Each structure stands twice: as structure tokens, then as C-alpha cells.
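Consider a typical record:
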Amino acid sequence: MSARLDSAQPYALGLFRIVVGLLFACHGAASLFGVLGGAVGTDGGTVSAGTWPGWYAAVIQLVGGTLVMLGLGTRAAAFIASGSMAYAYFKVHQPEALWPMENGGEASAMFCWAFLLLVFTGSGAFGLDRLLSRRTTRERAQEPAAREAAVSA
């Protein structure tokens, strides 16, 4: 049973990455464009451009979430996204109360830890990172053969 589950791990991780990235990107899109109910506390509106930290957090959410969802630069995007959620938790939520249940910081805490996991695991299956690394590996493997053919010609 463990062997079967272990063989499915890259696929489960890939699906986890896609879902977490999509949900994170939706938060950014809501804050920047007023879709999906808009930014929290704005009654369907958006955050003002350039305001600290809301607008910058929304950009990180949209761009980072999209990159993570696509599996492109997953580790770096997840690292930045995790850090932004740690900042959100400790600067916005934690001063209100100690526990996430009390201070409304559950989403920030969950996103922070989910992205930190992706920093260490990578993109899993279905990611553009893997597709691009395969292509690069194939090209590197073909280079010596191409050089030999050029030298012998």
C-alpha cells in the first residue's frame, strides 16, 4: 500500500500546488480587480494602487499564485508567497490575539505553511518547471552527439 501511495506522491503534490496557487491568485485578483467579491472590507471594491501593504500583498498573491499554479519558478515564488503570508500573520493578525482562530489569521497561516512546504518539495507533477528541465536535459544530452557529428564531418 505504501509503495502505491509513494508512486502517486508527485501527482498529489502537483494537484496540491495547483489548488493552492489558484486559491492564492484568486485572493490577489479579488483585491486588485474587484472580482470574486472584491477585496476584504471594501464591499466588492479594490485596494488602492500603491498602498502599503495591501496592494503589494495583492500583487504577490496574483503573480506568486499564478506562478505556483503553473509550476513555473515554484520554489522562488513559493518562498516569496510564504514570507508575505508570515508578514501578514504577524503584523496584521497576531497583534489582535494569540491563536489564528481568535485573530482571523487562519488563511494567512495555512498559506504560509503550504507555500513553505512547496519551497522544499518543488512543483511535483504537471509543472512547467519539470517540462522545461526535461527539455534542457534532452538538449544537453544531444550536445555531445552533435559536436561529434560536426567534428567528424
The radius of gyration is 20 Å. Residues 9-33 form the longest helix (25 residues). The chain has a mean pLDDT of 88.
